[in-house]
Amino acid sequence: MLLTTYIVNTHKMVCLDFSENGFTEIPIVHDGVTQLNLSDNKITKLTKGCFPSGLQEINLSYNKITKLPKGCFPHGLQELWLSANKITSLTQGCFPSGLQILYVNANKITSLTPKCFPFGLQKLYLGGNGITELPLFLLELRHLDVFFRGNNPIENIHPLVDQWLEKLDEG
Questions:
Q1: Which of 76, 99, 116, 117 is the 20 to 30 Å CA partner of 105?
Q2: Percent of the chain having pLDDT more than 70?
Q3: How far is residue 80's CA from residue 149's CA, in Å, rounded to a whole number?
Q4: 33 with 10: CB under 8 angstroms?
């Protein structure tokens, strides 16, 4: 009962921390909340419209999420934590266009799909997946200043991407 009252009254809160609660679904969160921490729960599924439009930061790390449906995240989202889930692929349109920081390390991602990342992305953490190739389309991420890709079995890097990564790592 206390948790239900807490959720109902979220219109007065800016930051909510629902980590380590054993949630299996996204709780109802009203507009006005800008930061939502749902890390270390048992959430397996995201659906379109499950988050309020005003969220700027969401932490869904350490859950059991496998898929990211198109349009499930609010358009104004700037920072998204999805580390240590069971995500297998990233598809076009699964992230909002204004996203700036993305953590998808320690998942089960094996390949990258063209246009899966928003063009304005500034920081990307992809370490600890099963990615074997860094394709040419990564050069479209012109605003990227951090690209962590360690602990992946990368076998194939396009030569132009390799040059770009050297400059990025230097600077």
A1: 76
A2: 92
A3: 17
A4: yes
